[in-house]
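Journal club side-thread
Mid-discussion, someone asked how the predicted structure for our own chain would compare to the paper's figures. Pasting it here so we can look after the session.
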Amino acid sequence: MVARNYARLSLPVRASARAIYDAFVEPEQLSRFWLGKSSAPLEVGVPVRWDFMVPGASETTTASKLVRGELIRFAWSDGVKVAITIERRSRTQSVVRIAAGPFRSTSRAVDAVEGFSIVLCDLKVLLESGRSPGLVRAKARLIAG
């Protein structure tokens, strides 16, 4: 859903809140489903370089708040803020919610919903089956041409 140039989405994942949290914070986990490479784990106030799977696409990410198994907040270099909230439903079931923005236009917010939806679906399959389906990688190939 897009509201006032913000992207908001959620997805249930059959995984512990801690496993989901670690997947978004730890470089070796991020590279299994979302990134080509991360320069370091997310740490509050420390800029981290993320190299996406699209050749030449990178971003500097700085975490502003990290609560293990519950919340990841970071900002990108253009000022867009991202909040990943993990709602634990049981020991092995969680809901992941992502809110990002503000974006300069509605079309950028729509693009963010698309991108984060692919990322969440890839993460869901990875954590539930142990293997990434390569959804982010396939989209990166499409973008790269």
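Post-session note: The chain has a mean pLDDT of 95.
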